């Protein structure tokens, strides 16, 4: 029996996947690294440092740890400049309703985000109180696709992983959900989500009755 839903944030609830993408693309251009949508897709759901390492796979030169820190923080500055002005209108269409419908059905809700900006974003979007439990990159040590974050979310809800479903827009996230022992709902239309148990074009199509009846 499903008793809880664990939502990813960027690209599922918040319209921020495009903002992360644009910030990495700008950084890549500045340091002369080729960047296309296939790289962009691989970065989804991956934490900041892991994303930088993927980006630098195409670099003709090596970077020191200090340089990498500086690059990651430059990307974060670009990202933060954009979300400074974010508000509830930056929720993806149907996201608020999807989360509320889960609560109305008597199930618990959690958030599992790889972003260290998740607390700021939740506040800006005005949805912090829609979640019974929040886990973000500040609380875990192993990034998606490791199951740690979804396991922590289930534990925080007081549920077994098998009693939860996870909702994700990234391949790394689907892998993390499965490794945690949950069923995975994929949000989006990319072939990268082929492993999802159920694929929906957007979060507006999420209907909790699919899992409770
Ligand atoms: C994930 C995003 O939610 O958070 C990634 O899908 C992002 O694109 C990652 O890199 C880390 O975010 P932040 O805000 O900690 O740099
Ligand atoms: Mg995401």
TrEMBL record:
* TM region positions: none
Q: Which family does it belong to?
A: Belongs to the HAD-like hydrolase superfamily. CbbY/CbbZ/Gph/YieH family.
Question: What protein am I looking at?
Answer: Kojibiose phosphorylase
Q: Which organism is it from?
A: Dyella acidisoli
Section covered of the full-length record: 793 to 1005 of 1005
